[in-house]
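Thread amino acids onto this structure.
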């Protein structure tokens, strides 16, 4: 199997997040994240932030940019109160293929392509019928130097047996 990226299969617990639905070009997601951060800061919920998440519902080439859908989300503790104006997003616990990326986020689309185009077909695994997501463990807004920023693509996998 091609080792362009390191992929590990992990058990991941449920992730609870405050979210805003984004409609339109994915390139404008930073604007939606900015609105969400402002909402959470105003409510005081930002203090419990555990990472930024993006759940993509459409493959970039499959629908026109104006119709692309995603959730911009910020993970909060399970007891956190989601402020008015934000959606509650719960990403289920389960078995995930996790591709870890360190460095600039500009290469993420090639990592997605590799995960679905090379790793998944060669792995013998089957995806769950739910969207994969990115979690930015050191989001761009954190001030961490680009070369040290860490994100994961989490692809839910079927459990057999």
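Threaded sequence (161 positions):
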């Amino acid at each position: 199997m091609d080792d362009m990226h390191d992929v590990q299969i992990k058990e991941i617990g449920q992730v609870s997040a405050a979210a805003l639905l984004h409609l339109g070009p994915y390139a404008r997601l930073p604007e939606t994240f900015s609105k969400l951060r402002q909402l959470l800061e105003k409510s005081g919920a930002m203090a419990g932030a555990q990472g930024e998440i993006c759940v993509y519902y459409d493959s970039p080439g499959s629908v026109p940019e104006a119709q692309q859908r995603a959730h911009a989300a910020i993970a909060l503790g399970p007891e956190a109160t989601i402020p008015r104006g934000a959606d509650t997003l719960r990403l289920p616990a389960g078995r995930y293929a996790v591709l870890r990326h360190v460095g600039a986020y500009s290469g993420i689309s090639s990592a997605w392509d590799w995960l679905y185009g090379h790793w998944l077909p060669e792995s013998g695994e089957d995806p769950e019928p739910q969207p994969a997501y990115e979690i930015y463990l050191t989001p761009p807004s954190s001030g961490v130097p680009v070369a040290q920023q860490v994100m994961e693509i989490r692809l839910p996998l079927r459990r057999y047996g």
